[in-house]
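To illustrate the input format used throughout this study, we show a single complete record. The first block contains the structure-token representation of the backbone; no residue identities are included at this stage. The design step must infer an amino acid for every position from geometry alone.
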């Protein structure tokens, strides 16, 4: 089945640099180099501002805003992909547990207008109160916190994506 309006785009990085493959993540354009898995209808990327080490995102290729906007085959592929990614990050980060979350709509904390499943490796004691992870998820990428903790560098994100890609080859 077609994946709708999704296209890999080739965009110039800079007038003097060669084009690079990018894809749309809501209002953002992300480099293909931070994508570590692609399925028929979904993709997985590393996070530019992870709440915990290994906090990654799984998204439908078609930039639908809300879970209810997805077709059944997209929902199915999204969660099968999330399950595969869960296995990989669990191993890679030696995590006995994982948190999966979808912030579906602005009142639920969604800031990127493109459905995404958050996956976070969890370890005992990573938060003093286990459910504080949800408070952190709601606030970590808000503008007011960017000054305290800037985004990761592209090379750092690319390094993690390359490591995670090895689980799917
Ligand atoms: W939401 O608050 O919409 O549920 O979560 C958006 C997530 O996407 C956050 O974890 C944020 O850090 C991450 N994010 C936003 N923009 C990018 C980007 N360009 N590349 C990688 N991760 C991003």
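Output of the design step:
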């Amino acid at each position: 089945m077609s994946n709708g309006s999704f296209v890999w785009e080739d965009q110039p990085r800079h007038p003097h640099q060669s084009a690079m493959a990018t894809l749309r993540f809501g209002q953002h354009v992300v480099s293909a180099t931070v994508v570590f898995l692609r399925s028929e209808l979904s993709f997985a990327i590393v996070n530019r501002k992870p709440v915990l080490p290994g906090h990654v995102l799984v998204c439908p290729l078609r930039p639908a805003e809300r879970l209810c906007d997805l077709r059944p085959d997209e929902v199915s592929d999204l969660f099968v992909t999330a399950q595969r990614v869960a296995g990989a990050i669990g191993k890679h980060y030696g995590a006995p547990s994982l948190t999966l979350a979808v912030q579906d709509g602005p009142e639920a904390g969604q800031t990127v207008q493109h459905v995404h499943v958050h996956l976070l490796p969890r370890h005992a004691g990573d938060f003093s109160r286990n459910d504080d992870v949800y408070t952190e998820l709601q606030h970590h990428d808000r503008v007011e916190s960017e000054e305290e903790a800037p985004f990761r560098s592209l090379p750092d994100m690319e390094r993690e994506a390359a490591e995670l890609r090895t689980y799917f080859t």
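Structural context for interpreting the output: The chain has a mean pLDDT of 89. The first helix runs from residue 72 to 92.
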